[in-house]
Design goal:
SAM-dep_methyl-trfase; methyltransferase; 3 domains; binds S-adenosyl-L-homocysteine; Rossmann fold; cytoplasm; globular; Archaeosine Trna-guanine Transglycosylase, Chain: A, domain 4; S-adenosyl-L-methionine
Length: about 400
């Protein structure tokens, strides 16, 4: 087995549990470097640190899979890991739909698997994980006997690993428009053409948080995607709900979701640019009782954090201005480079400019099936805040 020896100065980080080893942290490599292959990682003095997969084409040279020297990486390894992931989700009560595997947080770097009842959607985002795709599919078959498995590897990040983007069946073909149950509602999930894996499971608990505040309210949801928050609002007793999204496909699905839950009279959707529409409503002095904002990630690179913050400030400022006194702003951010602290500061800055006094109702993060590793930064990626305009 090829051996990778780290430089002296970086070992603390890796020793403390971080699974990534960057190219510039490596002092010496003994043996062949075959992209995607399993290698052993040692300290500069030669003691064993862990075992993982290597890819010289990636900035992250090695991602560790295990720190147990006796643990072999083979199909059985992936079966054991997936079983462990499943036991954890079951323990926490995420049985029907869940993020079954959340990459690094489940000691399976660069692997994502979402479970939609009997259907599974998979992403292998690094070459070393891609190579084990057959073993992963086999493990899923063994544990779940699924009705279908699909890969949504149509993600640009794969190109950093020298891989192509692709999507397709990893099981016999099946009807990829599935319906899931969530919080007593039903939702269409378009596995092939939906965003990311088709559905945002990370907000599944947060959607319940609007239950009390939407009763009899006029609700506006911007960046509504398939209308999941909007439908929840309707279901929890809102007087009217207006959902906005720039994607025609999302809005169409949102309308189908409303109909599926018998909420078509309460929930209306429009395919528009939310930035423009929020501006327009401000000019018209429209008012709502609840405004929900869940925009896409505004940046994936550090250079653009300021720009992302400006974006958050703008939409939240507009959202606050559209609210009646005593109304509620429900606001989220999934940009992992914007920390919870920075997000709250941005909301405070928006409130100052809008001359509003905010009273916090709740501040939370992603659902528990997306675990947070305390020793890895940016894994608390979802911020979800409800404030009252006091
Ligand atoms: N709240 C949703 C997820 C929202 S994802 C849920 O829980 O399922 C962000 C959404 O913002 C995407 O559907 C995307 O199409 C939409 N979007 C991106 N830019 C937009 C814009 N300028 N105006 C309106 N919607 C936009």
């Amino acid at each position: 087995m090829t051996k990778v020896f780290l430089k002296k100065q970086i070992q603390n980080r890796v020793l403390l549990g971080h699974p990534w080893i960057f190219g510039n942290e490596v002092g010496e490599i003994k043996g062949d470097v075959v992209p995607g292959d399993i290698v052993d990682v040692h300290t500069h003095q030669g003691s064993f640190l862990g075992r993982g997969y290597i890819n010289p084409q990636s900035q992250i040279l090695v991602r560790l899979l295990t720190r147990d020297k006796s643990e072999e990486i083979n199909p059985e390894f992936f079966y054991r890991r997936l079983l462990k992931c499943w036991e954890y989700r079951q323990k926490l009560g995420y049985v029907e739909n869940c993020r079954l595997v959340f990459g690094e947080a489940d000691d399976l770097p660069a692997l994502v698997i979402d479970k939609f009842n009997d259907y599974f959607v998979l992403q292998t985002l690094a070459l070393g994980m891609e190579k084990w795709k057959p073993a992963i599919v086999e493990a899923l078959n063994r544990i779940f006997s699924p009705k279908g498995i699909y890969e949504r590897n149509d993600v640009p990040v794969r190109e950093l690993e020298g891989m192509e983007q692709q999507k397709g069946f990893l099981s016999a073909p099946f009807d990829t428009n599935v319906i899931i149950n969530e919080n007593g509602l039903k939702f269409h999930v378009d596995i092939v053409n939906g965003q990311k894996t088709g559905y945002f499971l990370d907000q599944q608990d947060n959607r319940r948080e609007i239950r009390q505040i939407v009763k009899d309210a006029n609700v506006l949801e911007a960046f509504c995607y398939t209308g999941t928050f909007s439908c929840h609002a309707g279901y929890y007793g809102a007087k009217s709900v207006l959902g906005l999204d720039i994607s025609e496909h999302a809005v169409e699905t949102a309308r189908r979701n409303a109909a599926l839950n018998n909420l078509q009279d309460v929930c209306q959707f429009q395919a528009v640019n939310a930035f423009d529409q929020l501006k327009q409503y401000t000019r018209e002095d429209r008012k709502f009782d609840v405004v929900i904002l869940d925009p896409p990630a505004f940046t994936k690179s550090r250079e653009n954090i300021r720009k992302a913050v400006t974006g958050y400030k703008e939409i939240n400022l507009r959202g606050m201005k559209l609210l009646n006194q005593g109304g509620f702003l429900v606001t989220a951010s999934c940009t992992n480079l914007v920390s919870p602290e920075l997000f709250l500061e941005t909301i405070d800055a928006a409130a100052k400019d809008a001359k509003k006094r905010l009273r916090q109702v709740t501040f939370q993060t992603q659902a528990k099936d997306h675990p947070i590793l305390r020793n890895i930064e940016n894994t608390t990626y979802l911020k979800f805040l409800i404030v009252e305009i006091a």
